[in-house]
Amino acid sequence: MPEVRAAVAHHTTPLWLTLAGLGVLFAKLQQGVQENQQILTVARMRADAEDAYGNSLSAITPATDRIGGGFSRDEGASVRKVREHDTRRRLSANRS
Fold this sequence. Notes:
Layout (H helix, E strand, L loop, with lengths): L18 H40 L1 H6 L12 H18 L1
């Protein structure tokens, strides 16, 4: 069976050493810088959005506590007990 060899092009000068190759290399580096800036922008905006969302969630308990009566008048209410237990559990998890 005859041996089959793939034709391989050999360049004496690497592509990146040519003037055109340097232009392509520089353009790709610039593209990478822009892509990194886009990723950082998304990460920053997402962190800001999550921070704002977390702050809005922390306002729920004080808002409900300002309403007189309700759960504060019924110490044995199961919903209040669940909420208190959940709050204590989250606080202890945050301390760990």
